[in-house]
Amino acid sequence: MQLTLANVLTVLRLLAIPVFLVFLVDGRYAEALGVFVAAGVTDALDGAIARITHTKTTLGSYLDPAADKLLLLSSFIALGFLAAIPRWLVVIVLSRDTIVVLGYFLLFVMTQRPMEVRPTLVGKLATFFQLSSVTLVLVTLVRGQPFWPALETCAFYLAGLMTAGAGLQYVTRGLQWVQGQEEGLG
After folding, report:
1. What is the pLDDT of residues 134-145, one digit of tens each?
2. Is 50 exposed, middle or buried (CB count within 10 Å of its CB: 0-12, 13-18, 19+)?
3. Of the four, 29, 45, 61, 95, which is 20 to 30 A from 104 by CA?
4. Angle 54-58-61 (CA atoms, 0-180°, nearest 5)?
5. How far is Cα of residue 132 from the mean position of the Cα atoms in its chain?
6. CA 51, 52, 54, 58 torsion-angle sign
7. Is the separation of the CB atoms in 80 and 36 below 8 Å?
8. pTM of the model
9. What distance in Å separates the CA atoms of residue 156 and residue 37, rounded to the nearest whole number?
10. Cβ(108)–Cβ(155) under 8 Å?
């Protein structure tokens, strides 16, 4: 197994998650925001570095999205417990990711074939609005008051809508994939 610079950055992002959570729970919001932004920068860098240096790895293809999901899920759970993000949005984000992961596992068990999962435009928009929501909430926590309440509310609703839409897309894709697999066996 080759440990590339891109994979090192992804591992650093994974290691940043507990640090972020400790800062957040301790009320050290500026530090939590700094770690969250740094994690976001490593996310942008690792993909770019892997493409530019032609060092994409199988490990990175699994580790990178896992690191992204863990950062976002832990952020939503922690901020949900702090009542900084609406509970309905936390439920949508957690439900979508749970359904997608369980669905992928179920499809693999049923077919014994891995399904290639490619992000959709709606999925990328969901991630963008989830990241935006977390960032805006962290800025609000640092300031002690909302930076721009209407923008925060808009980000919440767009994150919820895009997350639900992406979830439906992934479920539909999974069902179509299974149907194609069954037709190929018959």
Report:
1. 999 999 999 998
2. buried
3. 45
4. 85
5. 12
6. negative
7. no
8. 0.87
9. 19
10. no
The two tokens of residue 59 are: 């490990």
Instruction: Please give the Cα distance from 29 to 34 (Å, whole number).
Output: 8
Tokens of 146: 């909302």
Rounded Cα–Cα distance for residues 100 and 87 (Å): 20
Note the pLDDT tens digit of each residue in 22-79.
999 999 999 999 999 999 888 888 888 888 888 888 788 778 888 989 999 999 999 9
Task: Give φ, ψ of 146 to 5 degrees.
Answer: -60, 135
Element (H, E) at 84: none
Q: Read off the tokens for 41.
A: 């920068």
Measured in whole angstroms, the distance separating CA 90 from the mean position of its chain's CA atoms is 13
Handedness of CA 143, 93, 104, 176 (dihedral sign): negative
> Which amino acid is residue 110, in one-letter code?
M
Q: What H or E segment, with its residue span, contains residue 148? A: none
- Amino acid of residue 67: A
Distance CA 33, CA 98 (A): 26
Q: How far apart are CA 72 and CA 82, in angstroms?
A: 15
